[in-house]
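Sample entry was shown:
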Amino acid sequence: MIYLGLVWIALLFLGMTVAFTLGVAAMVQLWVDGTPMFVIAQRMTKSISDSFPLLAVPFFIFAGNLMNSGGITERIFTFARSLVGHYRGGLAHVNVVASVIFSGMSGSALADAGGLGNMEIQAMKKAGYDDDFSGAVTVSSSIIGPLIPPSIPMVLYGVLADASIGRLFIGGIIPGLMTAASLMFLIAYYAKKRNYPKDPVPTFGLIMRSFLRSIFPIITPAIIIGGIAFGVFSPTEAAVGASIYALILSTLVYRNLTIAKFIEIVLSTIKTTAMVCLIVSTASVFAWVLAAHQAPMHLANWLLSLTTDPLALLILINMVVFVAGFFVEGLAIMILVVPALAPTIAASGIDPIHFGVVFIFNLMIGLMTPPMGIGLFVVSGVSGIPFEKLAKATLPFLVPLMMVLVLLIFFPSLITALPNYVLGVD
């Protein structure tokens, strides 16, 4: 198994795409083991075709793309501005609140950063905010996307860990709101220190008009969560419903989706889905090779030899995941780590929903930590802010996020109480 690890690490440092590093490393190890190469194709195909919940991923991506392109993001931004724009540093607060609302439609941090991000940063620049601060707020707020349902990472975790996706969805609501509140506290500090501008206090009529203009996208998460909670549809079916709902809004309600734009959205969805599926399939081969060499069992024995205390084990795992997030893409970490750790988590008595939400939150922090932070690359690309400058400006925002992560680790009820109340104790 030593070849697997050495080849993978070497390819990562050479700058190869994560999906290919996983596939090539697995291929080398299988060749050394004398395993026929056709096994790779079989395992890659099986990992995609045998998972019904995985169908939710392309539909949530499609729904997010529709929301981004159908004029809906502008309505969300305007409504958020009417709510909090009149506070000092108002547009920075708007950035966070808009991410909370948009997270209920896209389920993706990168969709938030790439869709709302450009609009938010341009508005903040125009109002006199520092470029790097505008970008840092956008990167930080985008991680709310996968916490408040729907959530593509939660779907993938539920598939890998055989955990309830519905419970994961509901369990992420409070952590998502906590994240937003912590970021807004830090923004308030910087806004006062740098004397950032604020909008005039809005009238009640203005707030109501902006609310009515955006009411249909705002109720999207309520439809999804309500449908799952009352057993109307499964999370996978909810993804299909979200796509149909977004399509209806863009074509029949707002009527600003052209044929050319629709084709562009479909192609973008296919491209993004293909990227996700490539990582999932190659990582599944990598994980299968690890399992064949009993790596999960050795990992479990090693972790349990260090501590059998659930809290200490959870802290240890999250420390490792946080460091890994600097160098490895979050999806690859999830696919490699979750199947290997699932038996250990179960044996130690850690709630899989608690672990899942904490784990995903930790991975999302990795989107804003260089050198691998994909969120930094996305925001840098859409805004023109230099990567190094943006990464430096983002560092203070890690402090409130790490505080939230610690609270979630030490107080499981912040995650488990709401799904237990809505769906009953599992």
Notes: The longest helix spans residues 259-292. The chain has one domain: 2-423. The chain has a mean pLDDT of 83.
